[in-house]
Amino acid sequence: MGLMVFQQFVGINALIHCNPTLFQTMGLDHSMQLIMSGVLNITQLVGVSSSIWSMDRYGRRPLLLWGSALMFVSHFVIAILVAFGASWGPVPWAMPAEIFPSSLRAKGVALSTCSNWLNNFIIGLITPPLVQNTGFGACVFSAVFCLLSGVWTFFFVPETMARTLEQMDDVFKDVRGEEEFAKRKRLEKAIVAKGDAPAYA
């Protein structure tokens, strides 16, 4: 769920939701505001497209770390969309399905998605007054979360690239998966033994 918190609080949706207002403050007319909004979204699409090959080539953790650093700097030069699209856009959606064991995957992914939408809702509520009352402070607010996302990733997000679901227990130092596997093997053995027993009429 932490991935989804940072995915929203790094400022991407604040920028996307408020980009017409941002372009208006730059003196652009309505038509140009819409064109620039489209350019920004296409820029993010370029970043997201790169994740198709970069997640499995470089790993999730390095993408998140580099993305945090690039977005932190980008808030000061308004180039966040490519950095977000290549890192924090796709990776938080990929990792929950990779890290939860089969028995918990549906609940884990559901909680991650709920966290994403809750955080998106919070950003939608706080962004307009933040931009109106602080101006550039909104970028500083998001830049701080980009910095925090890098620190959090460094300390708490392990690399999951090229790891099987069975290896996730070792990655997270969790023994419950081993216990679940042993229980499943005992149940399978009991079922097979029961199936081999002679049938009495």
UniProtKB/TrEMBL annotation:
Residues 1-161 form the Major facilitator superfamily (MFS) profile domain. The keyword Membrane applies. Pfam families: Sugar_tr (PF00083). The chain crosses the membrane at residues 32-52, 64-86, 135-157. GO terms for molecular function: carbohydrate:proton symporter activity. SUPFAM superfamilies: MFS general substrate transporter (SSF103473). Keywords: Membrane, Transmembrane, Transmembrane helix. One of its GO terms (cellular component) is membrane. The keyword Transmembrane applies. InterPro entries: MFS_dom (IPR020846), MFS_sugar_transport-like (IPR005828), MFS_Sugar_Transporters (IPR050360), MFS_trans_sf (IPR036259), Sugar_transporter_CS (IPR005829). It is a multi-pass membrane protein. It is found in: Membrane. Belongs to the major facilitator superfamily. Sugar transporter (TC 2.A.1.1) family. This is Major facilitator superfamily (MFS) profile domain-containing protein.
